[in-house]
Write a structure and sequence with these properties.
The chain is of the alpha/beta class. The protein has one domain: Alpha-Beta Barrel (TIM Barrel). It is built from 11 helices and 10 strands. It has an 8-stranded mixed β-sheet with strand order 1-2-5-6-7-8-9-10, with helices on both faces. Helix 10 links the parallel strand 9 and strand 10. Helix 4 runs parallel beside helix 5, helix 5 packs parallel to helix 6 and helix 6 packs across helix 8. The longest helix is centred in the middle third of the chain and has 14 residues. It is globular.
Length: 289
């Protein structure tokens, strides 16, 4: 397995006035962003275009997934004023598209669903023009928690599949493939008007046939958007990269995924779940659709 990054994974360091302004705002409002905490390579591009991903419910996760750079441990309480601060940030920056995600909070009875719902409502009130996408945890399969989030009417309900079933136990500690597929399927059954979305990391040892089997199941569950990106090892403590996929392989997977019934597949080495989230939403709502 190679540890040297291929040339197509090299990115420009973030910068620009809008990037610096948003970074200062996040600090002033005491907000966490998965863009920073997960070391996303697209942070400069997305922030420059008015798209940001907020991480609510703190910055300490109750799980220890072996691909994730977010800190693991025992969370320190619950900040009930966080939704209002996220809404203020969306309003001040006139953000086009907000993605709200979180750490896993298995310590909370509803997994944090009520805070997700309140954040959606607050952003709607403060910035009506902003599209709201939520990237939620699996809530350990709790349908009541899922219904709480859906009742607040996000524009997009996202929950990442992350990897193929065979690798779940090694990659996604504490999660279950069945919870993920079940959540996405039930979301579409509960409210068909809400776009459902998911993403997978590639390069962890999965085969193409395994990936396409998952995509086929996602299409059957009514998922409209799938993101496929290259897994990058955050630190030496995390899972190693088994293989770097060439951009041509991602282009081929996009074509195959859409042929299997997914309305829009965003695929590329640097694609992440929230990358170009606004364009993904537009793609499934364009007049051609």
């Amino acid at each position: 397995m190679s540890t040297r990054l291929p040339e197509w994974l090299r990115v420009t360091l973030p910068g620009g006035e809008r990037y610096r302004t948003l970074k200062d705002l996040m600090s002033r409002l005491r907000l966490n962003t998965v863009c920073e905490d997960a070391k996303c390579p697209n942070i400069g591009e997305c922030w420059g275009r008015g798209v940001a991903t907020f991480m609510i419910l703190g910055d300490v996760c109750t799980r220890g997934c072996r691909y994730c750079a977010v800190a693991k441990g025992k969370p320190l309480g619950l900040d009930v004023n966080e939704p209002e601060r996220v809404a203020e940030a969306a309003r001040e920056m006139a953000l086009r598209h907000v993605v709200v995600t979180s750490v896993d909070r298995d310590d909370l009875p509803d997994g944090g669903a009520s805070i997700f719902a309140e954040t959606i409502r607050r952003v709607r009130e403060a910035s009506p023009q902003t599209l709201v996408e939520v990237l939620i945890p699996d809530f350990r399969g709790d349908e009541t928690a899922l219904r709480t989030v859906l009742a607040a009417k996000p524009d997009v309900l996202n929950h990442n599949t992350e990897t193929v079933p065979r690798l779940y136990r090694r990659v996604r500690v504490g999660g279950r493939y069945e919870w993920t597929i079940g959540l996405l399927r039930r979301s579409k059954e509960i409210d068909p008007s809400i776009v459902t979305k998911t993403g997978l990391m590639l390069g962890l040892g999965e085969s193409e046939s395994e990936v396409l089997d998952v995509v086929r199941e996602l299409a059957a569950a009514g998922v409209s958007i799938v993101t496929l990106g290259q897994y990058l090892r955050p630190t030496r403590k995390h899972l190693p990269v088994e293989r770097f996929l060439h951009p041509d392989e991602f282009r081929a997977l996009k074509e195959k995924g859409e042929a299997l019934g997914i309305a829009h597949v965003e695929a590329g080495p640097l694609v992440r779940s929230s990358y170009a989230a606004d364009r993904q939403f537009e793609a499934v709502h364009s007049p051609a659709r």
